[in-house]
Amino acid sequence: MTNQKDNSENNSTYDVIILGAGASGLYCAMHAAKLGKQVLVLDHAGKAARKVRVAGGGMCNFTNMNVEAGNYVCANPHFVKSALARHNQWDFIDLVATAGIEYEEREDGQLFTTAGAGQIAGLLVSKCHRAGVETLMNREIESVSGDGPFVVKCGRETFEAPSLVIALGSPASPQVGATTLGYKLAEEFGLNVLPIRPALVPFTVSGKDGKFCNELSGNALPVTIECEGRIFSGDMLFTHKGISGPAVLQISNYWRRGSPLVVNLLPGDNISDLLEAHRTENTALHNFLARYFTRKMVGLLLEGEDPETAVSQLTKERRLALAKRIHSWTVKPQGTENFTKAEVAIGGVDTDEISSKTMECKKVPGLFFTGEVLDVTGWLGGYNLQWAWSSGFAAAQYV
């Protein structure tokens, strides 16, 4: 329940102040309140859990059946283990099931609501309200100071608490209010913040490969895609700017500027073997390839070649060259699209500054960080929301 107070009020004191009414902030608030803490949540937006409400295409991919530390990108790969182990996907699934929210399992263990993301957002807001959490929206956070009690100023209002949780997320999805404030506050407290960049984000492609993508804009196909030693399988979508789709978003977490992507456009077959098996056919090459690709794509794959060449007339060299083009299409992205198109960010508050058990800052007692503001980035598929639940719960036990 959102509580709108008059800005003429002066000081208010709480046990815990949480900055950010998103997934991890609300989850931390409800659990801290259950433990008897007087909790205040502050947010600049007009509505709580805005990013949750649009997650998973509006159906909220709220967790995954298979959550492991390996599903996360972090400078310290061990950091996520403690929080994930102490409050895992089954704990959140139990909360959802107990609330009577229906959900379904999709590919790769992804769990989605069947009636919309508003159910998860509503559950968080309702749980906070019932636990006695005070939630103040439309509050611009002007300054944060102190090391216990912490003092937060919003206009003419001042709030104090011995514990402060920064759950302000990353700048990904600014269209729903995302900002860099969490990083700025961390730096003000003397914490190291690792460089950030868009993640789970489409690539932009220029030059000859860019023309290839633009010509095929709107077409999707299953692929495997490799970069920096990582391989993901899934759909790839050609766009007028480059490439997108689940497999592409996944690999974007590991891409470094200048690194090539190697894409297998036909992962279920070996085109060289197929051509060899049909080497006596007089079928034109473009008709043979049309069994596996759209006519438009076949035309682009054979650009500059004679598409009417019969399969039986293909030389070994041409067959191998075509196989390389199809199974090892190598593209060097110009870059990625910006935070508007990104689902999350890579980088953030350095986890070396934070206790993996409590989410408390090691050098500023009483200061906690949860969720996406930390240098923890999950794969596509519910992993980032699970980190919000797990880290929020961990902090709630110690605030």
Give a quick set of tags describing it:
399 residues, alpha+beta, FAD/NAD(P)-binding domain, Elongation Factor Tu (Ef-tu), domain 3, 7-stranded antiparallel β-sheet, 5-stranded parallel β-sheet, 13 helices, disordered N terminus, RsdA/BaiN/AoA(So)-like_dom, BaiN-like_dom_sf, flavoprotein, FAD, FAD/NAD-bd_sf
CATH superfamily of the largest domain: FAD/NAD(P)-binding domain
Largest sheet: 7 strands, antiparallel
Question: Low-confidence segments, ≥5 residues, pLDDT <50?
Answer: 1-8
Total beta strand runs:
23
Shape: elongated
Secondary structure category? alpha+beta
Number of helices: 13
What is the CATH architecture annotation of the largest domain?
Answer: 3-Layer(bba) Sandwich
Note the beta-strand portion. 15-25%
- Strand order of the main beta sheet, please? 19-18-15-16-17-14-20
How many angstroms separate the termini? 22 Å
Helix fraction, binned, reads 25-40%
Query: Taking all residues together, what is the mean pLDDT?
Result: 96
Task: Write up what this structure looks like.
This protein is an alpha+beta fold. It folds into 2 domains: 11-198 and 341-396, FAD/NAD(P)-binding domain (3-Layer(bba) Sandwich); 203-336, Translation factors (Elongation Factor Tu (Ef-tu), domain 3, Beta Barrel). The protein is 29% helix and 23% strand. It has 13 helices and 23 strands. The chain has helices at 23-34, 50-54, 81-86, 89-98, 118-131, 181-188, 207-215, 246-252, 271-277, 285-289, 295-301, 316-327, 383-396, and strands at 11-13, 16-19, 39-42, 61-64, 72-73, 103-105, 110-113, 134-136, 143-145, 150-154, 157-161, 163-166, 193-199, 203-204, 220-227, 230-238, 242-244, 261-264, 329-331, 335-336, 344-349, 367-369, 377-378. A 7-stranded antiparallel beta sheet has the order 19-18-15-16-17-14-20. A 5-stranded parallel beta sheet has the order 8-3-2-12-22, sandwiched between helices. β9 (143-145) and β10 (150-154) form a beta hairpin. α1 (23-34) packs parallel to α5. The longest helix has 14 residues, at 118-131. The protein is elongated and about 85 Å long.
